[in-house]
Write a structure and sequence with these properties.
By secondary structure, the protein is α/β, with parallel strands linked by helices. Helix content is 37%, strand content 26%.
Length: 297
């Protein structure tokens, strides 16, 4: 008789908006034993109603000392990511961290080196790259030259963090994942709530990004990819493929959510004792680029 597979034990640090979502998803494929929170009464009330068996009154050090914990999920403010990740890896535990893992490329290099030295997984929540639409795009443009790439995001909200690290990171991860070339910054403008970027690649491909997080009309997220006289339009809920005037539309209805997909992949790697650092190495490229963007100003 085959022995029953041990359920992964997970701790989550941070029970904010994303922390709640991560607790819910990780509890589907593992056991969330701890959820660390900064004494926010509403978050604690949510946790007690969601699953009263999850421990919430322990310290971070107690989590580090608990040898039964396989992985720790970090969903805290960006400026805390590096130190939390460093301490967790040093304690011998795998890490799933919200983006960006740090805002300093030198720090991220050290974290990657530490993860490899400890033979641990270090994974960034690059959510958009796990969207089923993104996977369809990858298949559609495989071995094809992209002529133009335009990314627009209009919304109201997400004001707490710097716009480039919070929202811009997502789009830059998409760009650097799609185009395996070193980008040149042609122009950029960073305001408190708006971000514009013009990139050029060695293939002469031009790429523009515009994000406005104080947009009062209907929220819009649009990614426009032109290749070989064809066009792909990726919105939040639909994927449009235009070929010789014919439009094919695919809805997101029935798709597995990107967050569920990425959590499943992370826990699958842990269960198989697989170490794939491509995810975190892409994050390093994004962090490097955002540093250059800020220095370009």
């Amino acid at each position: 008789m085959k022995p029953k597979k041990k359920m992964l034990m997970v701790a989550v640090v941070g029970i904010g908006q994303w922390g709640k979502k991560l607790i819910t998803e990780f509890n589907k494929v593992s056991t969330v034993r701890y959820a660390l929170n900064s004494a926010d009464k509403e978050n604690l009330s949510w946790l007690r109603n969601y699953d009263p068996t999850i421990k919430h009154d322990n310290t971070f050090q107690e989590i580090l000392n608990d040898s039964s914990i396989d992985a720790v999920v970090i969903a805290t403010p960006i400026n805390t990511h590096y130190e939390f990740t460093r301490q967790i890896l040093s304690s011998g535990k795998n890490v799933f961290v919200e983006k960006p893992p740090t805002t300093d490329s030198d720090q991220l290099v050290k974290l990657i080196e530490l993860a490899k030295k400890q033979n641990l997984s270090l994974f960034t929540n690059n959510t958009f790259l796990y969207d089923p639409f993104y996977k369809k795009i990858i298949n559609a443009i495989k071995d094809k030259k992209i002529n133009y790439l335009n990314l627009i995001w209009l919304k109201y909200g997400s004001f707490k963090e710097d716009i480039t690290w919070n929202l811009g990171y997502h789009y830059l991860a998409i760009i650097l994942s799609l185009i395996n070339q070193e980008p040149k910054i042609v122009n950029t403008e960073i305001q408190e709530n708006r971000f514009f970027l013009d990139l050029e690649f060695a293939s002469k491909l031009r790429c523009n990004v515009f994000i406005d997080r104080k947009y009062s009309a209907k929220a819009t997220r649009l990614i426009n990819i032109n290749y070989k006289n064809k066009q792909i339009l990726w919105t939040k809920d639909n994927l449009f493929c235009v070929d010789n005037g014919e439009v094919n539309k695919t809805s997101s209805e029935g798709n597995i959510s990107p967050l569920e997909s990425i959590v499943t992949d992370f826990t699958k790697d842990l269960n198989q004792n697989s170490k794939d650092y491509r995810n975190i190495e892409l994050s390093l490229k994004v962090v490097n680029l955002i540093e250059k963007i800020h220095n370009f100003q």
